[in-house]
Structures are given as C-alpha cells and as structure tokens.
Fold these 3 entries.
Entry 1:
Amino acid sequence: MLRYLKLYTAFLRTCLMREMESRYSFIVGCIVILFFPILPLLLVGAIYSQVSSLGGWTLYQYMVLLGTFHIINGLIFTLFFNNMFEIPEMVRKGQMDFFLLKPVNSQFMLSMRSVAFREFAQVIPGIVMLVYGLLNLSVTIEWWQWLGYLLFIASGTVVAYAIWFISVLPVIWWVKMDSPELFLTIFDVARYHPNMFNGGLKFALTYILPVGIAVAAPADLLLGRLGWEAAIGSLLAAAVLLFISNRFWRFAQTRYYGASS
Amino acid sequence: MVGQETVLKKPKLNQLWHRYWTLCKVSFQERMEYRWNTFYYMLMAVVPALVAIYLWGVVFSTGRSNESVSQITTYYLVASFIGWRIADFHWLIMWDIREGRLANYLLRPMSYPAATFWYEAGGRSWSTVQTLPIFVVMAILLGDNFKAPANPLNWLLTLIAFLVAWVLNFFITASLGLITIWQNQPEGFFALYSFGARCLGGVLVPISLMPGGFGEWLQWLPFAYIFSLPVRIFQGLPADKILQGFTVQTFWLLLSILFFRWVWRKAMFRHESYEGGGMR
C-alpha cells in the first residue's frame, strides 16, 4: 500500500511539473474549464421557468444536486480523463505492453498515472452551486452529514471510474475507439435525480448504470432525504463495480495482443 | 520547363472532383473498417436525445407550457441528430498541424481546406447512414409525439439549411483549428467551442425557451443558424421567417468564408513544420 502511495505521489509530482511547464496555458485552461458547468445553467433556467418543481425537486434543492454532480465530475476529469483517453491509443500502437510488464498492478498504472490538474477547476462552480442551494434552503447540516457527504462523494467517484474503465476496455477487441468519452455522455445524465424520471430510465440509472444514485446519494444526505437502503446501495455499488472492473480487465488482458512496441 | 508548365496548369473541374471524391471514399472506407467503433460513436448521439425527451416529458407533465409535448419531442430528436451530424473540423486540423501533416498536404497538388472538407464529409456520410435507422426507429416509437412535415418542400428546405449549416460550421471551425499554429495547446478552447456552440445554438435548450430574453440575443450569433434553423424549418417555420433565416445564414456563411481566407493567409505566413507526419 505504501509503495503505491509513493508511486502515486511521484505521478502527482510529474504531472504537476508538466502542467507548470506552460503556466499561461494552465491558467487559461482553468478559466476555460470554468465555463463548462456554467453553460448548462441555461437548461436549468429554461426548466424552472416552466415548472416550480421537477419530480419533487425545487430549484434550490436541484442546485445542491447539480453542485454535487459537478464536484464528482471535476474529480473524475482530474483523476481519470487523460488516462481513459490514452487507453485506446495505447492498444492501437501496442504501447500497453510496457504497462503489463511493469512490476505494479496494471489497472492502477493504466488508470492513475496521469492527473489533469486544470480539470479541478470544474469543482469550483460545483461548490458555488452547492453553497448557493444550501444557503437559499436555510437548512442546518450536522458535522456527520458533511463527513457522510465526503464518503459518498468518494464512492460516487469510484462508481464513475469503474463504469468508465469498463466502457473503454472493449477497445482491446475492437482495436480502434474514437469515443472513449461515451461514458461522459452517460454520466451527464447523473445531473438529474433518478426520481425525476419514471419507467425504464429511472431503473437504468439506479440498477444498470448506477451513475444516478452515485451522485444523488451525497445530495440526498445533505437534504435529509437519504434512506438507509439507498445509502448502503450506493456504497455497495462502488465496491461491486470496482471488483467487476478488475475482473473484466483481467479477462480483457487474456485477449490482448501487442500490435507493436 | 515544359514539365513544370504541365504541373502548374489549373486542373479541370472534373479532375478536381475526382481528386476530392477519392478522399471522401477513403474516409468512408476507414469508418467501415471499424464498425464497432462507429456503433459506440452512434450511442453518444442517441443517449442525450433520449434523456432530453424523457426530461421534457416530465417538465410538461408537471407544469404549464406554451410548447406542446410533440413539438418539444420532435425538436430534440431532430436537433440531436443535426447537432451530431454537423462536423467540427478544429480537432482534425489541430492534429494535422501538430503532427506535421499539414506540410505534406501543402506540397501536394490539392487544397488542404478542400481535402479536409471532403475527407470529413465522406466519414460523416457513412456514420449518418449508420445512425439514421436508429433515429427513424426512435421517431416511430415516439408515435404521435413525433411530427414530421407532410410537405416535401419542408424536407427539401431542411436539407438545404442543414447543408449550408455544415459548410458554415466548416469555415468557422477550420478558422478556429488554424489557431494551433499560434497556440500549441488549444484543446480547452476547442472543447469549449464544440460544447458552447451547441448550447447557444439550441441543441441543449430550444432558443425560444431560453430564460430572461437570452434567446433574442442569441439570434444575432451564427450558432442558431447552424443548429437551430434546420430544425425550425422541419417543424414548419412560416415562409417569411424561412427567407429571413436563409438570408442571415448566407450572411454568416459569406462572413465566415472571408474570415477563413484571412486567417489562412496569416497562418501560412506563420506556419513552421518540424517533421513530416505523412498523410491522414
């Protein structure tokens, strides 16, 4: 464990040095990234100009959910974006051989070695939306709720990572994949609470691709809406999906053949 | 000397067509080679359309609105399809510049912008052929909630508006792509353009539903004439509004062509190639 911690610290240091090579580009990049969570507020404005509550969520309650979504989104972009985008390219060029031969867990190497620090800027508008929503709701939040919130943010990030990793792995069979961001399109649905929908979409967001509950659980906890079944379900989903991602990766490795080195 | 004159002779129109049509076919064949990849790509178009339709279904079932469910459903299905089919060229041009491929094109007897245009047109045609049946099935499943125009003229005008929008977006995004010559890491700007243009163009929210009179202001920008105009024509825009739409779209097209020519000239003065990365 300590070895992996040391390795990850080394990754962080290298990535930070690389980002700081071009400070101007880093700062401009951060400013540009701030706009990504802001533009979809147009949709929020359009929806709440039509209705006062969407599936039982008022505007300020929804801002808490949206803020949470952007915090998790910012985290997965920072921690995994570069890594997931590089996997298809590595398969196509046969560069994955290098990772498989290293004396470290290959899933860890593939998923964690690159950190996109500038993407963390997405978290800032998320926090602003969260605080804005909470202040307007005038709710009192206990310290244990904040602790639980952080725990569910972590489990939500793990759920998102596991599904993203699983969705990229078919490239080992297909060789080419232009859209490793398919997961991001799916994850984007998590900006809405599963309860806002009915029928098939609610079922899919809860049980098949539980990105919905991954984001909803922390927001629900702060708003005092989280039931114990959903709380356990959310944590369990993180553990099970992480396990499945590892098993799928092991299976995918047996089908991998290096195209070149 | 005679040989050089032969090389410099202006090619005939049919020769030009043959040249670029070949590129179009190459791109078409490349996409066919990796069919699963295209299938995955296609899912990315379908998921947002489905979610938007579901979401607005909930909004209209719980609130009051001037727009009917069928109008909004039709809007989102067509807007998602169009938003997905209109190609952004800045990414392609960025990689061509970064990896030194632009220099290779400049040395060949073909126009780089035209080659890029036809290459992408070929690829998009193939993925459109693949995506269209899914959207048709979705439209059938939506039943009465999807209203297609009965008049063939509406279909024709929609197609024309879509093709002009395609060319307009080509000139805008190609100009944007050339920024790579000055700024080596423009990915952030490029991603923001692709996302922002669709948000402000009416793919994320219909312009008529945008809050606080924001929609009125957006009518002055080109994005509404790239993503929104073809959908509005499809939904039966009145004749005078169609004429107005085409006029503004043509204005933006001419302006974008002039702007692209200016940027291209400046870029060619500035361009330095460090390595030759072969062809695309």
Entry 2:
Amino acid sequence: MDRFARLLTDLIYTRSRNSKLALLADYLRAAPDPDRGWALAGLTGAVNFPSVKAGIIRDLIKERVDPVLFSLSRDFVGDTAETVSLLWPAPPGPVPPSPTVSEAVDLLSAATRATAKPVVAGLLDRLDEDGRFALLKLATGALRIGVSARLAKTAFAQAFDVPLDDVEEVWHALRPPYAELFAWASGTAAKPDITSRPVFRPFMLANPLEDAVLDLADYAAEWKWDGIRIQLVHAGGETRLFSRGGEDITGSFPDVARAFAHEGVLDGELLVRGAAQGGEAGGAASFNALQQRLGRKVVSASMQAEYPAFVRLYDVLFDRGEDLRRLPWTGRRVRLEALVSQLDPGAFDISALIEAGDFDALADLRAAARETDIEGVMLKRRDSPYEAGRKAGFWYKWKREPLTADCVMMYAQRGSGKRSSFYSDFTFGCWTAPEAEGGVLLPVGKAYSGFSDEELRWLDSFVRKHTTNRFGPVREVEKSLVLEVAFDAVNVSTRHKSGIAMRFPRISRIRRDKPAGEADEIDTLRRMIVSGLAS
Amino acid sequence: MLSSPKTPRWIKAEREGIHLPAIDWWIDPSRPVAHALVTHGHADHARGGHGEVWATGATRDIIALRYETPTGGRDLAYNEPIEIGDSITATFVPAGHVLGSAQILLEREGERIIITGDYKRRPDPTCLPFQPTPCDILITEATFALPIFTHPPIEREIGRLLDARSANPDRSILIGAYALGKAQRVIAELRRAGYHETIWLHGAMVAMCELYERRGVSLGPLALVSEASREALKGQIIVCPPSSLNSAWARRLPDPINAMASGWMRVRQRAVQRNVELPLIISDHCDWNELTQTILELSPEETWITHGREDALLHWCALHQMRARALDLVGREEDDTG
C-alpha cells in the first residue's frame, strides 16, 4: 500500500501528462502482482466494494472526532477521504505493518455491511496519512486525482511497450486484477481472445467544430440528438448496453436489450419517444424524459410504456463477427442501413443525414434548429475509420449557439476537488418583476464553471466580502453582482419556485459594470422555452 | 449554559480593530488612525498612514521599509510596561511569529488582556519564542483553527526540500515564501540543517533579508537570481514571493520545481491549485493543537477569537466549557502569510 500511496501523492502534485505517464509506468513495471492489477483497477474506476459506503467512513470518523469539527474540516478540505486521512487518530502502541494493496482489496471485498466498519478501521490503523488517503480513495471507488482511465491505459501500454489499441480492445473483457493482461504484456501469454464475449469497445468521439468551415463533399451531416450515447452489443447469446464510459446499463433498458439479438456492435443515441426534439418528424422526447429512466435497477412495465426508449443508430462496429472499424464511414453507413432494416422499427431507427447544398445552407439549417429544440449538428468525414477517442479531423460536433441571460448572484458554496475551499458553486436568480415595481429575485439556476482561475479567485473574494448570511456551507451574498449566464436551453420545472430550469448553465461573463436591478426578468427566460412540457 | 461574560468597558472590538475608546488608541487597526499599537509588520496588521505607531523597533523598521513614510511613535522594548493613558499599561511580549512580532498585554486596574496578534509555539531561529502570559481575556488568532491542521516538524520539511534538490540536479528549486518572515525562516532553517551554499533571491526579497541581517539574524550567502546564468541555477535553491511562482519571471529558471512554504500546504488541493509540486508545510502560525493547548495553558476567563476559522475554535471552547466569542474584524481573510 505504501508504494501505491506514494504513487497517488506524486500523481496529485504532478501536472505534466508525460511525467504522470512516467510515474504510472514505473509503478506498473515495479509493483508486484496482483497489487499492480488492483492499483490499475483503482485508477480506472473498476473496483467496487458494495459494503463500503461513504456513510461508513463518516460514521467511523465521527466516533473518533467531534462531528462538528469534522464537518467544518470536511467543508474546508472539500474531500471526505482526505479529511479523514488527516484527522484519523493514530492508534496507541507500535504501528503494525501496512497492508498490501491486494490484502486491503481482499479484506474490503469480504466485508459485509456488518463487518465493513471494523474492517476499514483496522486498515486505517495500519496506515500513515498518505496510506489512509489511498485506502479511502480505493475503498470508495472515486480517486479523482487527475488520472483518467485513458491515461492509465496509455501508461500501461508505455510501460510494457504494447500497442494502446490492443490494450483498449481487450480491456473491457478482463476483470481486475487483470492477470491475463499483465501476462500478455510481459510476454508470458498470448493476447486474450475476446471475440465471443459481449464486451465494450471504446467510442469514437467528436471535437468541437469551433470556427472551421468544412466541405460537405468530404463530410456528411447528421443532427445531434440529446440523449445518451450508447453501444449495443450482442455476442455469445447475450446483449449488453454500455454508456460512453463503458458502464453496463442493460438493466435500466430491458425493452431495448430484448429487441436486439443481431450478433454485432452498434453505436447510437438512446432516446425516449416524443415530439420535443425536431418536432413530430424528430420523434424524440427531451433529455428530461430520458432521465426518468436512467439509473434504475428495476424498470416497471408502466415506466417502459410511459417513457418508451429506442436507439437512433449512428454507426456499426461489428456485424456478425466481422470487424468493420477500418472501413470508411460511407462503407459502414451502407452496412448500417442494410442492418437497421432487419431490426424492430419500434426500438431502432437510423440517424437521418441532413440534406444541405453546401456549408452555408447547413449553417442556416443549424440556426433554425433551435426553433425545434435540436441540440446541434454532427459532421463526419466520409472516409473516416471508426477510431477510439477524439481523432482530429474526423468527427465534429457543432452545437447551437448558447442562450444567455443576466442574472444576479444569490448564494455561493465551496467547491470540491480542484476547487475545494474556493466559493465556486453559484446560485443565481432573475427578477419576478422590475425591481422598482416590487419584483424580487428567485433562483433560476446554479453554475460552477465557465470562469477562469483568475475570475474564480475574484468571485471567491467577492463572496467572502459580501456575505450577508451563512447556512452551513452555503453563504448568502449581497444581491449586487450580475453574472451573464450561458445555457443551452430552458425547460419547465416543477421543482424550482421560478418554474424553470436551465440546461448546462455556466458563467460566461462577470458583469461588474451592470447594476443588479438591470438583470433579466424570469419572463424573459420563460419565453425561451421551446418545448412546453418535459416530455 | 455559561453565564454571559462581563466585558470590561475600556476595550472594544470594532470591525476596524481593537479600540480603547477612552484614549482613542487602536490595536492593529485596518484604517489610518492617530494612535496605533501594532503587533507585527504583516500588512493585515500594520497598515500605512497612522499618525503614531507604537511597536517594537523591528516592527517599526519593517513598517518604514514597506510604506516608505516616516511615522511618529515609539520603539518599544519587550517586557517593558508603558503607560498609555486612562490608567492603561501596555507591555509588548514576544509572540514567536516573525522578527519583531509581539503580543500586547493591556492592563488596567488589575484586569489583564492579551492580544496575541499572530503567533506560533515552535522554535524559530529568526525571532524570540512566544512567551505565555497569564490573562483574564485572551484575544487569539485562529488562522489554522481546524483539527486537520497539524504542522509537521520543520526538520522533516527541510529534509524533503534537500532530498528533492539532491534527486534533481538539473532542476532548480523555487520556493514561494512570504517576503516577511517565512522567507528568512526557511533560509535560516536551511542553514541550521547544514546547507551553506548561496541561496538565490527574487528581487522583492532582498530588502527584508537585509533588514533581518541588520537586526542580527544571519542568513548566510545570498545573491540575486538576476546575477546568475540559467546554467548556474541548476540544482540551486531560489526563494521568491508566492505570487512569482508560475510567473513570467520564473520562466528564466532551469525547469523549476515549484515549492511553497505554507501551513495551507497541508491540504492537497491547496497545493494543486497553486501548481505546487513540492508542498512544504511550514507555518508561522499555531496549528490546531498549539491553539487549543495555549487556551488550556492560559485558561483565561474569556477567549476572543479573531481572524481565521473561528467557528471551529468557538465550538471547541464550548465543548471545554470555556467562554469564547468571535470578533468580526475586516481584512483578515486567509492569505499567503500562512
């Protein structure tokens, strides 16, 4: 555990990607099996100890430290694992030897709800501060130390000098501590065969178009649908739905899974039937409707009937065991069109191509798309193979221009992670009527991004100097600062007193020049609602 | 419930500082006043523009250097009581924070009030140690008043610094350290650890280091970064103000390892936010244990808590059945002096 703890600490204080890769690769080469496999699983978010919940860790510390002092500390640090690692009292007597990563994993895996507390406490008693931090991060499954799964895999490829694509390919078929993977990479075994397993393949992703102008002879255009991107896999008699991060979400969408029994791998957008996006012709409800179905372990028949899910297909990666990923997009599209005609039209359709004479005509269509609540346009190079990640020049997303409104800062809360101890989560409001006519501010949204580090420091200091009230971690501020907020859409909401909710709000400008009384009214936002109802 | 404290009428806590209304004298006021008693030279305690500043000689030197304006007032020696009017006596007592730093003991008709200013309980080769002084009311700082703040021994942090230097002969080590106090303490501790090579300074550190030398704190061989070639700075230790880490100025240095000497470095994300690779937990303030131990040791009838995380210390006092209240002083939010 000491070596893994040192790795995490070093990674946290290292900024450059190359230095992080070098630290990871050194660890993966030097650490023993199966410790390094478990460490890799921890770094890529592949460990899960169902009996070890964050609540247990909070209970443990509150048995040892005054609860008020703990929560004030937690509020300042912005991270429970780090706070607990700093506050944990060293047990009396000589320190027993620290556990190995695999010993810790074995103990945590074997823990039940009844034994989890003593197991975690016993481990913490055997570790120093950095070790406690590493253990708690591992145990709660959320490292958040600036190392993505992709970076960890890249480091693995670098450590053993094997192709990254091969690592990505076999990755999702293997389970921690990845004995087969290390055996193959260190040359003692053949590459694992995964063709007959229903496993996730990494997605091809798009870059923002920014200001580029493309020739539609080279690029095909599709609408950008606002659902969740999924991969549909049928192999070895089993069907799986994976989200963008490779998470298995089959359980939430049994209706879709049942409808797919064609051996292959497809890429598409999971949506709910409706008429919000693109009107009747678009045939898809808003993202809100889809949200009703997300994250459920059991989905009732009435839920399936009320929010019927379907997949709008974008691409095909495998068809009856044949790997199509090296084909150009045009070739894959032909195969996809043939394939979709064999599928249940209730559960599957194909993402239509946009007919536009040239790029200017496409720009006009995109501009008009806001009227029908479509999120934007995708552009795909006609000769692009299906490649994992965001390969430059292949796929672009061209989102519609954001909407903006001038709002007044009302409340602020400290952020967590990178922004811990800065006031970085802002609740802002708009007027119910002009201030002079007795209007008041009602919250219309919350944002925690869009500003630079320098602006964050300024905002933080504004909050500290203009606090009028404190509610636990939340500070109410003097209602004097206007924030220009950008957002993608406005939806009706019954959860907010203002009756509206913004989608993807972020701070676009700090309007120190503007008096609060001149901020927008809620009616202005209401007029931006396109689809009247959530579904 | 504790009975409501009896607050002497001759002292008042205002937002601008501690006030003695009968004679209109202030302690560490945040706006210009006619008569100020100043605990130490940090900007959140020693503002410019006062008519008279009564402080230790070192603190008055520091104020003169920073504000470049002559100020009336008097140099005071430690532990020598002086009458300031209305039967009030003030005595400056070492606080162990930085050169010249003092607690101020105010006495009137048998009532004793200690204003600690900023202080620490660890030894520091650049200033006199904190002198515990019995009192009825303790007005204490609370910069690091959360139980997560426990400062490690400075020898450990200096050891980590020297280890990083040995492990990276091709890189320079750039330490962000507050120009008054922290910088000189880090240098003096490096000397105590046996490091006798030239330590390189950012231009903004020079005058204060010279002032320390004039006041008898020897810092060993120092030189300006601008006088060295990039090549000559490989493997060298450089001290700069925290704001110069990651600045255009730092680009001239050979692949610097950003270090920062501050009590805030105890929290990982604090270091990450400032792009610090080598966080050194070195503070000129009390940590949590020292704050609480000081309150227990002095056992005042009442504790007043100034800047910092007063909520936690107030709560601790309540848990220990001790009377306490928080003062709402302006301009005392956390900063780089930590």
Entry 3:
Amino acid sequence: MSTVVGTSLTQRFGSELALDAVDVAIDAGEHLAVLGDNGAGKTTLLRILATAARPTSGSLEIFGVDAVIERRRLRARIGFVAHAPGLYPALSARENLQFFATLQGVDSARVAEVLDLVGLAELAGRPAAKLSRGAQQRLAIGRAVLHDPKLLVLDEPDASLDSGGPDLLARVMRGRTAVIATHDHALANRLCQRILELRRGRVVGVPTRLRVVH
Amino acid sequence: MRTITVALAVARKDLRSEWRTRELVPALAQFVVLALVIANFGFQFDSRNAPAIAPGVLWMALVFAGLVAFGRAFAAEREQASLEAMLLTPASPAAIFAGKALAAALLLVLCEAVLLPALALFFTVPLSFDVVFAVLLATVGMAVLGCLFAAMVARVRARELLLPLLTLPLWIPFVVVGGQAVQAAMGGSGGGSGTGQTTGLLLDLDILFVVLTSLTARFVLDD
C-alpha cells in the first residue's frame, strides 16, 4: 500500500513553473531519493510532501488523508528536515529539542534518546549558535524524528554532515517511509530503493527501482 | 489545557532567548528614556500643564517601542527559519500566536517599568496604580494586534514600513482611551471621563481584540 500518492503536483511562483505535473508514489517503508540539479524542483516537491507548502494544482494523499486540505491532521506523522536548520541560536541543543517536544506533545524523556541517536549527547548543553554547521544539522534531524514520525522528508540533509552522516541518515530512516533530496548519487544508492530524477520541475524518465523493499 | 501548555512554552522560549541575547529590551529601554529626554527639552511645561502633556509623551514612546518589540517577535522567527518548524508540529497556530504575543507583551512591560518612573521623574507627574493599570491594559490589546500584523508582514520585504501602516490605525482607540485614563489618573481633565470609565473601556477593547486575533491567527500563520 502506498503511503504517499501525489498526482500532477504543480507549483507556480508567479510566472515561474517550479514543479510541472509531477506524479509520485511511495510505498510504506520505502526510501525514495529525489535527485536533480539546483533549481530542478527538489525542494519544492519535498516541501509539498512535508505539508509545508500547498501545490498550485494536483492532488496529494498521505496515509490516505488529503494532504492539501487536511495538512494539520498529518503533522504528527511527518518529520521534515528543511534546507535551513531552523533552530533557536540562544537555546542549547537540549532546550531546542525540549521546546519542540512540548509542541509535539512528546514526553521529555525522548529528548535524551534523540540526543543520543544523533550523537549530540555530549554537546547537549551548548547553545545552537555555538554548534558547528554539521552538529546543527544533526540537531535538525533529531528534531524531525523527535515524535517518531512514520514519514520522514529530508531536504539535502547530507549537505553539511561529516563522514558519519550517511550512517546517521540510515539510522533515522530505518523503519520509516522516507524521501530524501540529495546531489549525492552514492548516498542515494546506499540509502534508497528508488530514485526519482527531476529536471526543470519535471520527472526525467521513469523512477528507477534500485532494490525491492523488504 | 494543551493550548495553554504550548502558549507558555513559546513565551518561555522567547523570554529565555531575550534574556540570553539581550537584543531587544536594553535597546528599547534606552529608546524610551531618550524619547522622554527629547520631549523634556522640546515641550515648555510646568506643574499646571504637565498632566496634559505627559500622557501624550507616554503614548508616543509606547507606540514606537511597541512597533519595534512586536515587529521583532515574528521577524526573528522568519530570519532563522524556525517559524515553519513550529508550524509543522501539531500545535495549534492560535496557541503559538498567543505565546508570541504574551512574550512580546511582557518585554514591552519591562520597557514600561523603565518608562513610567522616568516619565514621573522628568515631568514631575504622580505615578499611581491607575496609571500603571491603564498602561498594562492597553499593552494587552496593543500586543495582540501588533503581533497579528507582525505575523502577517513578516514574510514581506517592506515589513518595517507595512507594520506601522497596518497597526497604527487600529492602535488609535488604545491611545485615545489610554491617554484619557492616564490623564485622569494624573490629575488632568481626562476628556471628561473618569478613570473607572476609561479603564472599563480599555478592558472591553482588550476582550474584543483578543477574541478577534485568536480567531484570525490560524489563518495568518497557517499559510
């Protein structure tokens, strides 16, 4: 059964066509890589899938719910790592997660688990502004999985991660349906079962199946 | 219950950030004191006309300090791309808005804690409970309106220009009624209205705008 079914997803910004009638379907537990050059429409597609943006036209169902109209119903089940980490610089890593745990309605005990998961337990008391870019990205990934979402949407999460990044991504994607936008074909091959390539807002060819989901 | 928990968490987060960075309150406090110093030199006042002039100076300083405080409430969130992260949680946008407005109002109250004694000092006017109460009541209504428009214009490039254009017309009732309340409390005519009548009107305005903004906040935030 498909977790995500998007049909003819189109996004216009004024006269600019950022996404042009893209169809996407992702099975439960499947990991899909979205590849493409800068400006191909990867971020636009991921923002729509994460319910952060509404498409200009087209339909999107996530977990059988209309994700265009009933976006708020889905938010407890989706985790999103956006292009910018979106952290509070004056708050420590732990305080950032504790704040979002309150908003998610998650027990604060989960914060320590997540800090461990993303490898930030030792830096938990450091203000986010004083963390390296890679550590900030780890924190943003931690925030996205704080509420144990069933669908994880990751927009170029590897951009500033260190050599342990791919292992971290594999850990957080395990057991979840995931969509990851990246420029790194090797990472896509390692983490994902399928690749969807975008060029100028359109899908290029047929999404490539790399391996079967188990 | 969950709405209150979320609102308090958002307000606590904003106040904690301000406490650590000290970006806004010291600058606003300096601004209001400078405004009073300039007014002190600019107006020819004595003990007879001070109660008529001081409320005007008070509300001018408050209005401009408020515009800065409420403008920053959402601009900072947009700049660090954290507003979207908050809105992508299941938390109600109205609760998030209430928390932001509460924090911005408390920061303005901190400025008022500097402004009111300084006003009493510079203009030698009495600082009574009625004055403080009227200013606090007006702060509530001004905060919810200011934050609503700040949220609305936060993504616009010309937000510094748009925020006063949208907010000031709707703040006029608070300035008029609050000015009368403060004037009456300071021993002026207060436009013929008693302190009780004007504070009652301020309370009515607060209720009206708190209800209206909480109903519209979700449409503004959940774009």
